[in-house]
Amino acid sequence: xxxxxxxxxxxxxIFARILRGEIPxxxxxxTPHALAFHDIxxxxxTHILVIPxxxxxxxxxxxxxxxxxxxxxxxxxxxxxxxxxxxxxYRLLANMGHDSGQEVPHFHVHVLGxxxxxxxxVRPA
Length: 125
Ligand code: 5GP
Known about the structure:
By secondary structure, the protein is of the alpha+beta class. The protein is built from three helices and five strands, in the order αβββααββ. It has a single domain (16-113), classed as HIT-like (HIT family, subunit A, 2-Layer Sandwich). A hairpin with a 3-residue loop joins strand 1 and strand 2. The protein is globular and about 40 Å long. Bound molecules: guanosine-5'-monophosphate.
């Protein structure tokens, strides 16, 4: 844990490597503060990931430490990517930490749409 209670940022996580251009991605949008690209294993006809360009582990980290310009720029990018789905509807989803099953420790929002998405959470058996 770092001093602020958040896990330290892993500079070699897969999205950091995508941002550095070390790993390719199918880019949807790039702005000064955000990058959007198609998920490698889509779970809906539209499944886009939007990430801030800065090194933030989670929404907690991003909301506490990013600048106002980064926060506004990131959410505007989410809005731009989501806009084509406005008519049919869509889901924004962000996993944070162990219990959520977050796989990649760089804050990201999933934009999902293109079909009826079903219940928000799988009910426990
Ligand atoms: P999480 O579980 O952390 O919320 O979601 C991570 C997402 O990143 C998953 O949906 C997974 O398919 C996606 N992902 C993992 N590795 C890569 C990659 O190398 N490229 C792309 N485009 N997506 C990836």
